[in-house]
Amino acid sequence: MSDGKLVGIVLVSHSAEVAASVAELAKRLAGGAPAVPVAPAGGTAGGGLGTSAELISAAAAAVDRGVGVAVLTDLGSAVLTVKALLAEGDELPDGTRLVDAPFLEGAVAAVVTAATGADLDAVEAAATEAYGYRKV
């Protein structure tokens, strides 16, 4: 448990609309989870498709409560951008972790788990476990 502080979640997509929609859906499916700090970081600063290191850094700073930040991404260059930011060492809050999880299902699992006050390891495990969700 995190002494009342919740793990932050950043959702990085190539599309601002997709990132915002997944954030909203995850929070709603988690019963609203109003306390969970979730931030979308989608598209470029100019509103186009792509990823923006600046938007990702700002989103991570906005959700950081000192107990870790889980970053979930959609596609290739989003992953590469987050990895580059992590390699810089000072662009993201301490305790920021790139989580290998499906974007939508992982986001829902991460938000639900973070809402319980779980630590970053548990949030990452729940999101990663979403790879095993079967639909048929």
Written description of the protein model:
The protein is built from five helices and four strands. It has helices spanning 16-29, 53-63, 76-88, 103-115, 120-129, and strands at 8-13, 38-42, 69-73, 96-98. Strands 2-1-3-4 form a four-stranded parallel beta sheet, with helices on both faces. The longest helix is centred in the N-terminal third of the chain and has 14 residues, at 16-29. The radius of gyration is 13 Å and the shape is globular.
**Helix content percent band:** 40-55%
Principal-axes geometry comes out as globular
Which structural class is indicated by helix and strand composition?
alpha/beta
Classify the beta-strand content into a percent band: 5-15%
Secondary-structure element string: EHEHEHEHH
Distance between the termini: 34 Å
The low-confidence runs, each spanning 5 or more residues with pLDDT under 50, are none
Number of strands: 4
Number of helices: 5
Radius of gyration: 13 Å
